[in-house]
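Quiz preparation item.
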């Protein structure tokens, strides 16, 4: 049951990030972005001396959403660099 909750948590974080960044990605992409975003957000928070994703709480959701926004932004940057070639 735990893995289903993490997928749901990732989907929620990815969906919120896609709303913030105004993307029209699908559910699977939102889940992937949310999970990757949670890892990236946790890493960024550890660089800032804070704790990363600590469980199913609002703080962890914010960390995952921030990480997802960063992942989406970096993806857009990489795609635009590839388009210029």
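Solution:
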């Amino acid at each position: 049951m735990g893995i289903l909750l993490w997928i749901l948590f990732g989907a929620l974080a990815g969906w919120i990030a896609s709303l913030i960044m105004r993307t029209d990605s699908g559910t699977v992409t939102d889940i992937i972005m949310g999970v990757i975003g949670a890892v990236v957000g946790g890493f960024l928070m550890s660089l800032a001396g804070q704790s990363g994703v600590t469980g199913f709480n609002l703080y962890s959701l914010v960390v995952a959403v921030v990480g997802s926004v960063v992942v989406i932004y970096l993806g857009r940057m990489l795609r635009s660099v590839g388009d210029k070639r």
